[in-house]
Amino acid sequence: MCAAPKQGQKLPAGVDVEKETVLTGQVLDADGSPVAGAFVRLLDGTREFTAEVVASGTGDFRFFAAPGTWTIRALSSRGNGETTVTPDGTGVFEHDVTVAPS
Fold first, then answer.
1. Does 34 fall in a domain?
2. From start to end residue, where is composition biased (Basic and acidic residues) (predicted)?
3. Residue 69 domain-assigned?
């Protein structure tokens, strides 16, 4: 069992998006339906594992990162998928990940 915290789109109180880089989005299947409970991994620019969370009941996930190049990979019983994001500063960067059977 993974000990990754459950996530959601609502940012915690006190998060200053003028000082933080937030990567957020939703895990979706090929039909656009949310995928609850997917393991969502954050990989750095060299594709090394950095962090993992469990998508919420509505498929939402969130990471706090630094500007740069990141890969967000989702793994679920409904398939896997990934997307590359390149936040260039602080703020909220929304990117959904679509999963498909392998």
1. yes
2. 93-102
3. yes
**Which own/partner pairs from 56-60 qualify as long-range (CB within 8 Å, at least 24 positions apart)?**
56/6, 56/7, 56/8, 58/8, 58/26, 58/34, 59/26, 59/27, 59/28, 59/34, 59/35, 60/7, 60/8, 60/9, 60/24, 60/25, 60/26, 60/34
Residue range of the domain that includes 79: 21-88
Does this model's pTM top 0.70? My answer is yes
pLDDT of 17 reads: 58
Output the domain CATH number for residue 44.
Answer: 2.60.40.1120
